[in-house]
Write a structure and sequence with these properties.
Structural class: alpha+beta
CATH class of one domain: Alpha Beta
Mean pLDDT: 94
Helix content: 25-40%
Distance between the termini: 61 Å
Radius of gyration: 22 Å
CATH superfamily of one domain: ApbE-like domains
Shape: globular
Number of strands: 17
Strand content: 25-35%
Order of helices and strands: HEEHHEHHHEEHEEEEEEEEEEHEEH
CATH architecture of one domain: Roll
Strand order of the largest sheet: 1-2-6-7-10-15-16-17
Bound molecules: adenosine-5'-diphosphate, magnesium ion
Largest sheet: 8 strands, antiparallel
Number of helices: 9
């Protein structure tokens, strides 16, 4: 009897030890798409864990090659170079993301508009460069998502105005995060965090506790304005501190109002919580442009999506479902 028990224990040890020794959190941080990518995931095997991180990082590189406005070889750059002359056939992925961006423009009364780049390309936040008012006036008519003509049949895109440029900076990182989570789900990973800049999505919880996701104080990078316990959901933050410069006491930052071609100024940061990182990303940019009143109205009529706004007097506002 004793001997059997002993063999039995040995057997248990043999089958459990390899798993428990290797099961652990795998982590990686890399700079891709001009931003910080962070992955944390739980895997029972080192091979699977490391391969999953590798797969996510190469997905981030793939999307960068496809959608970067800075790489002349990207599909987006080729589209910008030619679509005002003739219709350009693009990949289904780019076509679908541009279609979704246009849907968001319609839902947000044009606050989210990827043609913002028609004026936006004149800014260089690193070089403290901004356009003169007459240049803005000249190019402002090109900002209008209705200039983008989509041909579903052959995935072709045509710009109905000669000065149109598009940029997916307000939505592409969320898309990359969603794709990464789908890759993890296919691999069988159950607990993970994937972040690209301000866009985070969580798979499951952090084993036996929630993930603690912070929204940073827009005016102090070492301080959190809010920390939220979250699981199985995504959160995106848009802030006026990511890319900006100051001149004559004014802040010039990377979220532009499509109406003026200038930085939106009503709020300092917007965080959106919802199931899709792509939509959170687009909505956080849109609500930033819309400001407190119109932004909250939009969130309160959008099922499944909630938000926290920090306005320019540093007051916090929560959408209805977060305070009910
Ligand atoms: P980030 O994580 O880079 O801060 P955000 O989600 O806050 O991204 O979006 C900011 C980016 O969105 C800008 O860098 C620009 O590429 C793009 N953008 C700026 N204004 C608009 C707008 N009105 N509509 C759509 N995209 C915009
Ligand atoms: Mg965004």
């Amino acid at each position: 009897m004793k001997k059997t028990l002993c063999y039995y224990s040995l057997f248990l040890l043999l089958i459990t030890v390899p798993v428990s020794i290797q099961a652990k959190w795998f982590e990686s941080k890399q700079g891709i798409m001009g931003t910080n990518i962070q992955v944390e995931l739980w895997s029972e095997s080192a091979v699977t864990g490391e391969a999953a991180i590798e797969a996510i990082m190469s997905e981030m590189h793939r999307i960068d090659q496809l959608m970067s406005p800075y790489k002349p070889s990207s599909e987006l750059s080729k589209l910008n170079a030619k679509a005002a002359i003739e219709p350009v056939t693009v990949s289904k992925e780019l076509f679908d993301l541009i279609s979704l961006a246009i849907e968001l423009s319609k839902e947000t009364q044009g606050a989210f508009d990827i043609t913002f780049a028609s004026v936006g390309f004149l800014y260089d936040y690193r070089e403290h460069k901004k356009p003169k008012q007459n240049n803005i006036n000249e190019l402002l008519p090109a900002i209008d998502y209705r200039h983008i003509k989509l041909e579903e049949g052959n995935h072709s895109i045509f710009f109905g105005h000669e000065n149109v440029k598009i940029d997916l900076g307000g939505i592409a990182k969320g898309h990359a995060v969603d794709n990464s989570i789908h890759i993890l789900q296919q691999t069988g990973i159950k607990y993970a965090l994937v972040t690209a800049g301000g866009d985070t999505r969580l798979l499951g919880n952090r084993l036996d506790k929630p993930w603690m996701v912070g929204i940073r104080d827009p005016r102090n990078k070492n301080k959190q304005a809010v920390v939220l316990p979250l699981a199985d959901i995504a959160l995106s933050t848009s802030g006026d501190y990511e890319r900006y410069f100051e001149e004559d006491g004014k802040r010039y930052h990377h979220i532009l109002s499509p109406k003026t071609g200038k930085s939106a100024f009503e709020v300092q940061s917007v965080s959106i919580i919802g199931p899709s990182s792509t939509l959170n990303d687009g909505l956080s940019t849109a609500v930033f442009v819309l400001g407190v009143q119109k932004g909250m109205d939009l969130l309160n009529r959008t099922p499944g999506y909630d938000g926290i706004i920090l306005d320019n007097t540093r007051k916090l506002h929560y959408s209805n479902a977060l305070v009910e």
